[in-house]
Design brief:
Jelly Rolls, disordered N terminus, Immunoglobulin-like, 8-stranded mixed β-sheet, C8orf32 fold
Length: 671
Amino acid sequence: MKLNRILIFTLAFILSATLHAQKFKFGSIDIKSLEEKEYELDPEAEAVVLYKKRNTNYMYSNGSGWRLVTEVIERIKIYNKDGFEFASKKIPYYMGDSNESVSIKAVTYNLENGKIVKTKLEGNEIYEEEISEDWSSKNFTMPNINEGSIVEWKYTLTSPYVQTIDEVVCQYDIPIKKLECKIEIPEFFVFRMFPSRFYPINVRQSQNSKTIKVMGSSRSQTGWATTSTTSTGSADILQNTYSINAQNIPALKDEPYVNSMDNYRALVKFEISAYRPRNGTPKLYNTSWEQVTETIYNNPRFGRELTKNKHFTEDLEQILAGNSSQEEKMKAIFQHVQKKVKWDDDYGKYTKKGVSKAYEEGHGNVAEVNLTLVSMLRSAGFNASPVLVSTRSHGIPLFPTKQGFNYVIAAIELPQNMVLLDATDPFSAPNLLPVRDLNWEGRLIREDGTSIAVDLYPKKYNLKKVKVTAKLDTEGEVSGVMISTYKNLNALLYRTNYSNLSEDALISKLESENGDIEIERIRLNNKDNPNRPLTEMIQFTGDNQADFIGGKIYISPLLFLSQTENPFKMEERNYPLDFASAWRNEIDMIVEIPDEYSVESKPEDVQYILPDNLGAYSLSTSVENNKIVISSSSIINKAILPANYYKYLKDIYKKAIDAQLEKIVLAPTQT
């Protein structure tokens, strides 16, 4: 093992030295790279970024002022067909008051009969995709892709939005051999730099001078004649430079129980804090959460929308008249908005068409749905406020920024607790948010402009209880009834995943998820009532549930419910385990065995506990006459476990699987 580590280190050092010496130029491809069959440091990689270069700098134009120019070059080697997906690219750009512009040049390289053949990307192979009201992207897939191809593209993004520098992505889902990046910022723009959190990226900072051209004009008057004169000059300014030079960055490997892998990707972020011209008034940007929330609340498409209530006055009067307690009123208002204003799957913290029009039309974006909910709750006398959220796919805002939020929900502050509500999901309920919302903390904004952090994770455990009564025959077939009860987040997920399925499709899915048993009948209770636990009852049969050796029958304690594969594959993990909720799964099973057999041996009872009482697993087996009673329990006591508990959790999963694979042995009864 030690020798292997030395060899890997030596190889990495040689590769690093080679990359340092190698000069990369767009369009300059060598045959050796085309002949390469695999990446030495990750032979299973389906593709690798041979080279990525990014330069971002500010250009000054006398007519239009500053422009932000970013040039990116990427060269990717495709090893096999699984790597073909990395021959496609999406380049998002902003379409606000002034459009950003994108220019693209791209080539595919193949080796044919010992010669390099180039295939250029044509203009008609680039297409536009509308991402949202303000964002679009230029998309393309490289032509003539084969196993062994190299694709290379260069694009330039020119933006008038000089206060926003796109984050530097330093890690992909495939390895990166060499990364070069330079961000050059004039002295007038003051940015804060936030380095990568989970994978170290060294950013070198320096300061240098730069000369820019400046044009001026003057007017002079002689008698009745006016003369205009244009002059060209130059000015020396200082600029701050951030440089990255990295080699052999590993791929970001997917793992289960992660809110979003993008949250743990190696990124370097920049956030503007001030603009300080030499002659003029400095402008300060949001530097605290209070400033960010104040800016958002004062936007007319946010705060002003909360004051609109005439369009629902009559409906609200009927709701309040039909309910007496505060809890009943809250639930009735929530359910009314759920049904009245359907979510159109559009994210965003600001309204588009406004709450009044969305209410009238019966659909709107997330802001129009949940700001309507806040407004109705306030009109009913509740202390309700909007809560800004960054959804799981959007990432975690690490510093005060408006761009950190892409979603909004509602909250009611009560003397003893807080109730969180999201009316976009037909199966959500008070304090039962959709999984997309469960991303660390949100930011509640009160009417007086103050704001507080809000823990978004559920306070109640995510529960699943399974009770099985089964009978085993001498052929190894089992038959019986399984009753599964889902509570809280588990119930919401069940309703979301299965509500649109026909009974036949649901049965087919459940059969495949439960060891290919055959379901003869199924019944669901409270399928459409998110305020009640959901119960699933099935009558089933299943063959091949036993092994026959030497006249004895061998069965697994949990039969078709046994877990056979550990979801945790990595040796180490640098980011936390996010389960979205604390959870508990319980299985109670009674298996009646044939009269001709008795239990000869059974596995020992086991119990495994995570450090600091963060979780546990137990499995017990007992025999009562001709029945085997099995009980299995898994529990995780926190929604998020720090990365340092990963090895313990992985080990418990392994031990739990081993225990479930231990056999109960049935021997023929002596006569």
